[in-house]
Amino acid sequence: MTSLFLRDLKLAMRAGGGALIGVLFFMTVVAVVPFAVGPDLNLLSRIGPAILWIGALLASLLGLDRLFQAEREDGSLDLMLMQQTPLVLTVLMKCLAHWTATGLPLVIAAPLLGLFMNMNEVAIGATMLTLLAGTPAITLIGAAGAAVAVTLPRGGLLVSILVLPLTIPVLIFGVSAAYAAVEDPTPFLPPFLILIAITLFFAVIGPLSAALALRAASD
Amino acid sequence: MSENSLTIRKFSDLANPTRFLGLAARVLPWLIGLTVVLFAIGLYLSFTTEGDYQQGETVRIMYVHVPAAWLSMMCYTVMAVSALGTLVWRHPLADVSARAAAPIGAGFTFLALVTGSLWGKPMWGAWWVWDARLTSVFVLFLMYLGLIALNRAMDDPGKAAKVSAILILVGFVNIPIIKFSVEWWNTLHQPASVLRLGGSAIDPEFLWPLLVMAVAFTLLFFALHIAAMRNEIWRRRVTSMRRQAARAAGREA
C-alpha cells in the first residue's frame, strides 16, 4: 500500500508539470476574479473565502479524470483488480496520493492568495483549515465519478458535470465555516465539524462505489 | 446454489421482456384512459375553485407545480430502486426501467422549475431566488441531466446500466445531505404544508384539486414510464435483430 502511495505520488509529481499545474490553475482563477468584480479591497476581503473555495473546487476537479485512466491505458488497473488486497483499500490509497499531489498544494497556496484578497489573519487561517478538511471530500467523491467514466475516451468534462452537484454540501459548509470564524456571533465549530463529518462519510462512500464501478467497467 | 438459481429463474419468469410487453399492452390503455379522466376532473376542479384571497388567480399554478415537484423526487426514488435491482438482483428489466425513467424525471423537474419560476414572479417579485428548495430541485435537475449524458455516452447498454446504477445510488445517498445543507444555507420557500403531523394546513377548497392532480400526475408518470420501457425493449430487439441480419448477410456473402 505504501509503495502504491509513493508510486502514485511520484507519477503525479513528475508527469505533465506535476502538482504545480493545479496550483497554477488555482492562482489563475483567483487572479481573474478582481478583474471581474473590480479592485475594491473591502469587497474582495468580504468574498475572499468564497473565491478561494471555488478556485480550490475547480482546481481539484481538474486532474480527476486521469485518476484511473492512465492505469487503464497501461494495463496496471487489471493488476490492481486481481491482487489480493481489497480494491476498496487500493482506491482509497490512490485517492490519498491524488489528494497529496493536488489538494495539499492548494491548501499550502491558499494563504498567499488570501493576502491578495485582502483577508485578515483569522480569515486566512480559517479558510486554510476548512480547505484542509474539505478538499479530501472532493477527491473522494471525484474518485467515484472518475471510476464511472473510466472507459469513456473523453470523460473529463462528464466527470466534472457529474461530480460538481455532489460537492455542493462541501462547498456550503466549507464557506460557512470560514465566514463563521470571521463574523463574531456565529460559532465556527458546528459547520466545521459537519464538514469533517462529510469528509469521513465520503471516505466510505467514495472508494466503495469507485471500486464497484471499476469492477463493472473492466471487461 | 440450487435455491439461488431457482429464485432468480422465478424472478426473471415474472419479468422476462416478452411477459412484460404482454402486461404493458394490457395495462397501458387502461392507465392512459384513467390518466386522461383524472386530468379532466383535476383541471376542471382547479379552474372552477375559488382563487386565493391574497394570491388571486395565480394560486392555480400550484395545481401543476406541486405535483410536478413531488414526482421529480418520486422518479428519482424509482430510479434508485431500479439501480438496486440492477446491482443486487441483476434484474433484466431494472436497467431498462432506470434508463427510461431518467428523461421523464428530468421533464417533471423542469416543469416544476418553470412553473415555480412563473409563480415566483408575482409572489416574490423575482423569477428566481437562491432559496433552499429551488436550489436543491435545480441540483436534482442537473443530476438527471448528468445521468442521461452518462447513459448516452456508453455504447454497451449492460455496462452503461451498471455504471449509472452506481452513480444513481451515490446520488440517492447524497440527496438528503444536499437538501439538509442547502436548507441550513438559506430558505425562503414555505415549508411542506400538505403532508405533516397534525393535519394539513391547506384549506379543503385547494386540497381536493391538488390531490386529484397529484394522482393524475402519478398515473401519467407510470403510463409514460411503462411506455418508455416498452420502447426501450423494442429498441434493443431491433438492434439485436439488425446485428443478426448483418451477421447472416456476412455469412452468405
Automatic annotation (TrEMBL), chain A:
The keyword Cell inner membrane applies. It comes from the Bacteria. Keywords: Cell inner membrane, Cell membrane, Cytochrome c-type biogenesis, Membrane, Transmembrane, Transmembrane helix, Transport. One of its GO terms (cellular component) is plasma membrane. It is a multi-pass membrane protein. Belongs to the CcmB/CycW/HelB family. InterPro entries: Cyt_c_biogenesis_CcmB (IPR003544), Cyt_c_CcmB_bac (IPR026031). This is Heme exporter protein B. The chain crosses the membrane at residues 12-37, 43-64, 85-110, 122-150, 157-182, 188-214. One of its GO terms (molecular function) is heme transmembrane transporter activity. GO terms for biological process: cytochrome c biosynthetic process; cytochrome complex assembly. It comes from Rhizobium giardinii. Pfam families: CcmB.
From TrEMBL, chain B:
Required for the export of heme to the periplasm for the biogenesis of c-type cytochromes. Belongs to the CcmC/CycZ/HelC family. The keyword Cell inner membrane applies. Keywords: Cell inner membrane, Cell membrane, Cytochrome c-type biogenesis, Membrane, Transmembrane, Transmembrane helix, Transport. It is found in: Cell inner membrane; Membrane. Residues 12-189 form the Cytochrome c assembly protein domain. One of its GO terms (cellular component) is plasma membrane. It is a multi-pass membrane protein. This is Heme exporter protein C. GO terms for biological process: cytochrome complex assembly. GO terms for molecular function: heme binding; heme transmembrane transporter activity. Its main location: membrane. The gene is ccmC. It comes from Rhizobium giardinii. The chain crosses the membrane at residues 20-47, 67-89, 101-120, 132-151, 163-186, 206-227.
